[in-house]
Amino acid sequence: MSELSTLARPYAEAVFRLAQDEKDLTGWSLRLKSLALIVADTQMARLIADPVVAADRVAGLIIEVAGSDLGDRGSNFVTVLAENDRLSLLPEIGVQFETLKADAEGTLEATITSAQELSQAQLDELVAGLKARFNRAVNVQVAVDPELIGGAVIAIGDQVIDGSIKGRLQRMSFALQA
Questions:
Q1: Mean per-residue pLDDT for 172-176?
Q2: How far lies 23's CA from each of 17, 29, 44, 94, in Å?
Q3: If you average pLDDT over every residue of the chain, what do you get?
């Protein structure tokens, strides 16, 4: 995973600088999400990994699937990735781009996974706590995972705050085994 991050970082930073110059962070964010979905497709992933298929052919196919919203610069980006055998990095490039975008906008991306659906009041309280703790605006995605038994897990970047019953039970189990 860290190798993917290392390989993807220069591409993410380059696209981020380009997006800033164009004043189009949102547009590039959407392009990268679309491209990540395309290369994550099982059949497309096989084509990308197949050494018999020419890089320009794979790039052309991705550009065609992405459509006109990709634009000339987006098409050039896909071509460069294909020439350098880096198309499989697109999902990680997108993740790193979103982190750079959030930093530039002064926001944090958080995922709150709870055992049960949260009420709006509970969600508002959690978001307010996160804003106070990190002193930044917080964009939240919410998910439900009944396996947590109770509580919630909050993921912000590489930080995880595990307040779930499942997490507490696991920590207790490890402590008892030591």
A1: 92
A2: 10, 12, 31, 17
A3: 93
Three-state secondary structure along the chain? CHHHHHHHHHHHHHHHHHHHHHCCHHHHHHHHHHHHHHHHCHHHHHHHHCCCCCHHHHHHHHHHHHCHHHHHHHHHHHHHHHHCCCHHHHHHHHHHHHHHHHHHHCEEEEEEEECCCCCHHHHHHHHHHHHHHHCCEEEEEEEECHHHCCCEEEEECCEEEECCHHHHHHHHHHHHHC
Separation between Cα atoms, residue 119 and residue 34, nearest integer Å = 31
pLDDT at 129 over 60: yes
CA distances from 95 to 21, 92, 102, 134 (A): 20, 5, 11, 20
Amino acid letter at 39? V
| Residue 69, both tokens | 């919203």
* pLDDT tens profile 102-125: 889 989 889 999 999 999 999 999
